[in-house]
Amino acid sequence: FSTHAEDIFRTLPADVTIAELGAGTASKTGILLRALTRHQPHVLYQPIDISPSALDEARESLEASIPGIAVQPKVANYITDPVVLHRPPNTRILALYIGSSIGNFSPAEARAILSNLRAQLSPGDALLLGTDLAPSRSKPVATLLAAYNDTAGTTAAFNRNILYRLNRDLDASFQPRCFAHRAIWNPTHSRIEMHLESLISQTIHIPESPAAPSLTLHLAPGESIHTENSYKFSFASIASLLTAARFTSTRTFTDSENLFAVTLASAT
User: Fold this and answer.
1) Which residues contact 250 (CB under 8 A, 6 or more apart)?
2) How many angstroms separate the CA atoms of 260 and 233, rounded?
3) Which of 20, 149, 224, 261 would suit a FRET pair with 210, their CA atoms being 20 to 30 Å apart?
């Protein structure tokens, strides 16, 4: 963003409002908003997230640090809830979905998210989509795997946390220390898969709840629970995803090592 923000806004109409899916505290977005205020004096920013506290932090930080920014947060689950974007008179909407979050969803789910967003846009509006690129000559599989098998154990702790949550929220009987974190590359589906592999022979019980009957799991050593997928994209698959959601890719920006991409696309 620091390198390409000016190029991004140079190709857009004069008056733009920005709406962002999964904004969080908008720490990265501030770079883009500062660049946009150099093109237009007043900018409406509409961050969308499920966390009210994160949105409050984003609003306070951005309005205090960037003159001309007005923040209109929307608390919503953009995956399941309809999100209505505000369009000031005579403006175009630039929708942001950055940070590679689209890779957390299956291809069908990703298409649905972008299609639902497209339904809120008009021809001439635009999307800025962030993606984590698939392995290539400049990004070997080993580099990708190292990010999910980090030596600090951060991702492993994140993965095991689902077992702690199941114990806490559903009174399950998982022993998280009896599971090993595994991250593997699945080239057929172009995704990192995260698994929790049972280290021992064990039986886990999840009591009946209002939402589901009781469940008993028998795991042998080496059996795993498939917990998460993180899809990685080629330039061709990015274009295909955008086309399926009625966007047309206009320009793609990458970092110097071709690890990540940010694609600007127009609503068609």
Assistant:
1) 11, 126, 264, 265, 266
2) 9
3) 224
Contacts of 206 (CB under 8 A, 6+ apart): 166, 170, 171, 172, 173, 212, 214, 215, 216, 217
CB contact at 8 A, 176 and 144: no
Is the distance from CB of 174 to CB of 225 less than 8 angstroms? no
Residues 13, 28: Cα–Cα separation, whole Å = 22
Q: What is the DSSP letter of 134?
A: P
d(CA 99, CA 251): 17
Question: Which residue, chain included where needed, has tokens 């994140």?
Answer: 158
pLDDT in tens, 76-132: 998 888 788 999 999 999 999 998 899 999 999 999 999 999 999 999 999 999 999
